[in-house]
Design goal:
The protein is an alpha+beta fold. The protein has a single domain (about 5-100), classed as 2-Layer Sandwich (Alpha-Beta Plaits). It is built from three helices and four strands; from the N terminus they run E-H-E-E-H-E-H. The chain has helices spanning about 15-25, 65-75, 95-100, and strands spanning about 5-10, 30-45, 45-60, 85. A hairpin with a 2-residue loop joins strand 2 and strand 3. The longest helix has 13 residues, at about 15-25. The radius of gyration is 14 Å and the shape is elongated. The termini are close together.
Length: about 100
């Protein structure tokens, strides 16, 4: 099984918690980590913008990424949320076994 960590930016801790809980409940992710307190600087609609945001990392399998991304798009408050899938090349075999068990 191929695994992915999906990096998601949420507009608040509460939004990240809602997305994370939904993804785990619906077996789209085995686990989600929420990292509060990120400061983003980016260009949006031609203006430099700063915002406090929250990082969410969802752990899943490659085959669940499309459904996970669609679910995030539905739940997310942003018009264009950052949702990026990163391949897991290697890891603790026991952890990867647990991950596979939780998303099947």
């Amino acid at each position: 099984m191929e695994f992915r960590f999906v990096y998601i930016i949420a507009g608040s801790d509460a939004e990240a918690r809602t997305i994370a809980t939904t993804l785990v409940k619906e077996h789209l992710a085995a686990c989600a980590n929420i990292i509060p307190g990120m400061r983003s600087i980016y260009r949006w609609e031609g203006k430099i913008t700063e915002a406090d945001e929250t990082v969410l990392i969802a752990k899943t399998s490659r085959d669940r990424v499309p459904a996970l991304m669609e679910r995030v798009r539905v739940l997310h408050s942003y018009d264009c949320p950052c949702v990026v899938s990163l391949a897991v090349e290697d890891g603790n075999p026991n952890y990867l076994d647990w991950l596979a068990e939780e998303i099947t």
